[in-house]
Write a structure and sequence with these properties.
The structure holds two protein chains of two kinds. By secondary structure, chain A is mainly beta. Chain A contains one helix and 17 strands. Chain A has a seven-stranded mixed barrel with strand order 6-7-13-9-8-14-15. In chain A, strands 2-3-4 form a three-stranded antiparallel sheet, with no helix packed on it. The N terminus and C terminus of chain A are likely disordered. By secondary structure, chain B is of the alpha+beta class. In chain B, strands 1, 2, 3, 4, 7, 8, 9, 10 and 11 form a nine-stranded antiparallel sheet that branches. The longest helix of chain B has 18 residues. Chain B is globular, with a radius of gyration of 21 Å. Chain B starts with 6 loop residues before the first helix and ends in a 15-residue tail after the last strand. The N terminus of chain B is likely disordered. The interface between A and B is medium-sized, with 20 and 16 residues.
Chain lengths: 221, 399
């Protein structure tokens, strides 16, 4: 796997996702369902339709499909605790902590946003790459399922919220606003504290679309 | 108040040690009948048995001041890389988060050695800011945070001088303490530069039978004269209308003891210099440490029993306003140029040093007989920030 600079990969990904002509105008009732197992990135903006607030969700699924769906904006029942983000000046970073589902129904988290710090946040997992025997990060294909009553720990070396291509440094002590987005369009807003952390440097494997590109997360300095 | 979390558990865990006489700090001598919990709180138990004892972090005042002295303490001096209010906010948030967790035996966020955080052993993390730092970041300097003037006996080494901020960490477990220091300095590493770390210790056993005070390296029972807990409001905590209310001023002095010269004095001469019995801590002419000092007593030929230049006379506070809280730690920095480099980290806490510490130290510098064996090589003063509630961060009140 050839290595590429942080900024390089982030730009590539961003270009691939946002410069492509996929600006589907979404409205209430525009429905489409990703194929099972598809890898999707989720972006979107909030808009008013018939005096109701909706989040327009653009799914961009690999390899080349895309669709869009409008979901009513609502507040997630999930709660977070002990959230922190790795301080970094440029390139990639990640956020960690505890996410709890206090309800009696499973909740799936399908995306993350932190527009102040990145145009592109993802839910990632760390897995062994059988080809190289290295631990690599990749996007979780189906988001994160948090079962009823359970708490999952986002941690270095495990599941985490990945920040690609930082817009501004995450500094020590900063409060980084993050939104997690559930499969029903519901959102959970919280802040993560910037912390100096030397670890969480797994290689990034972006999958088929960007095969051949990988890079470690930048260090904090 | 800051000790309330050590109550029942401390009582039970400490039971045996209480009988064994393992006590330190200044509270025990002042404990009134009925204040059983206070008595048990000051006990330093055999190593390890108080591993799970934690001192509450949140409160009107920061912990680590009215907390009975832990066996080990470090004072960490840091300068702020970019002295701005934004930096102070970030530092305050990080310190608050780290201290709130670590002092309760919880790992810090992103703690790489979470198991080491599990035994707080009365861990406290206390933060202070310097006068010039507040000026640099454009924050109102509290009136009581005055410059500490140079004293004529000082031989200050800038190595131990004033810094922008100071973090005091104490614990009865040196591993816990080292971990907390590492976590905090690592977390602040992009915002601050380390200037010094001053490490101190006290004996876990009292300086004399029934004493509240520890013994220093010169053999003195040190810290006999201290306010009762119920005098802290009058002596220690700032209670004016400024943002610093609830805090205090720390004057930290690194006092090197000329041990090799002190060795030349015979015991009687040492006691005359100090004004107290080395064995019991009793004032000359008295029988026990807690005896009131009779400064007017004269001997058969009319000379003062407590000599005019004896340490306890010169350092004596005549009024409550003149009092300070002494929370001293011994230090041992090995051998330097063939002579022992050891002494005292003299940590004085006062609500107004201009009325207490400074006049006292001026008298001491003028005429204290002990000066011949003591050299102050480091000096710094900090506003110990007011305590915080669960929604606040340290230093937030200054903005």
């Amino acid at each position: 796997m050839k290595k590429q600079s942080m900024t390089g990969i982030a730009m590539s990904v961003a270009l691939a996702l946002f410069m492509a002509p996929h600006a589907v105008q979404a409205h209430e009732g525009t429905h489409s369902t990703p194929k099972a197992g598809a890898t999707c990135d989720m972006t979107g903006k909030t808009e008013m339709v018939k005096k109701k607030k909706y989040r327009t969700v653009n799914y961009v699924c690999l390899p080349n499909s895309k669709w869009s769906q409008a979901l009513p904006v609502s507040k997630s029942d999930l709660t977070t605790k002990d959230m922190w983000a790795k301080a970094a000046n440029t390139g990639m970073s990640a956020a960690f902590g505890l996410v709890t589902n206090p309800t009696d129904k499973d909740i799936r988290v399908i995306g993350a946003r932190s527009p102040k710090y990145t145009s592109f946040a993802q839910l990632h997992e760390v897995v062994m790459d059988p080809a190289t025997n290295q631990m690599v990060m990749q996007q979780r294909p189906e988001g994160l399922l948090i079962k009823a009553g359970e708490t999952i720990e986002l941690k270095p070396g495990g599941n985490h919220i990945m920040f690609m291509g930082l817009r501004q440094p995450i500094t020590a002590g900063a409060l980084v606003p993050i939104t997690l987005i559930g499969s029903k369009g519901e959102t959970l807003k919280f802040t993560a504290m910037g912390k100096v952390y030397a670890g969480a440097n797994e290689e990034y494997d972006s999958g088929d679309m960007l095969s051949g590109m990988s890079s470690g997360m930048s260090s904090s300095n | 108040m800051a000790n309330s979390g050590i109550t029942r558990r401390g009582l039970f865990v400490a039971g045996g040690a209480a009988l064994a006489g393992g006590a330190t700090g200044y509270v025990i001598a002042n404990a009134q009948a009925g204040e059983i919990e206070n008595v048990t709180q000051v006990l330093v138990e055999p190593a390890g048995t108080n591993a799970k004892v934690s001192v509450p972090f949140y409160g009107a005042h920061q912990a680590g001041i009215d907390t009975p002295a832990q066996i080990y303490s470090k004072f960490i001096g840091l300068n702020v890389v970019d002295p701005t209010q934004d930096s102070m906010v970030a530092i305050g948030r990080i310190l608050t988060d780290d201290a709130a967790r670590l002092t309760q035996g919880e790992p810090a966020l992103g703690d790489t050695e979470p198991e080491v955080a599990a035994n707080p052993s009365r861990l406290t993390i206390t933060a202070g800011v310097g006068r010039s730092f507040l000026q640099k970041i454009g924050v109102e300097v509290p009136e009581v945070l005055v410059e500490i003037p140079p004293f004529k006996t000082d031989a200050l080494n800038p190595q131990w001088g004033q810094t922008d901020i100071m973090i005091q960490i104490g614990s009865d477990d040196p591993l816990t303490l080292a971990h907390a220091q590492r976590m905090v300095t690592k977390d602040l590493s992009t915002l601050t530069n380390l200037v010094w770390i001053q490490e101190g210790f006290i004996s876990p056993t009292p300086g004399a039978e029934g004493s509240s005070a520890s013994r220093n390296l010169m053999g003195q029972v040190d810290g006999t004269v201290n306010p009762n807990l119920n005098e802290f409001d009058d002596v220690v905590w700032i209670d004016d209308s400024s943002w610093a209310s609830g805090g205090t001023v720390l004057v930290l002095r690194r006092i090197r003891m000329m041990m090799d010269d002190w060795d030349m004095l015979d015991r009687g001469a040492k006691e005359i210099v100090v004004g107290r019995s080395l064995e019991t801590g009793a004032p000359i002419g008295g029988t026990s440490e807690s005896d009131p000092v009779d400064f007017n007593a004269v001997d058969s030929i009319g000379l003062p029993v407590i000599p005019r230049d004896a340490h306890i006379r010169v350092a004596h506070a005549a009024t409550t306003e003149e009092m300070i809280l002494r929370r001293p730690y011994s230090y041992d920095a090995g051998i330097s140029n063939g002579i022992a480099d050891m002494g005292l980290l003299f940590a004085a806490y006062t609500k107004n040093p201009a009325k207490s510490y400074i006049p006292m130290q001026e008298r001491v510098a003028e005429s204290d007989a002990m000066n011949r064996w003591l050299t102050t090589i480091g000096s710094a003063a900090y506003l110990i920030l007011p305590g915080v509630g669960e929604e606040d961060f340290l230093g937030e009140v200054m903005f």
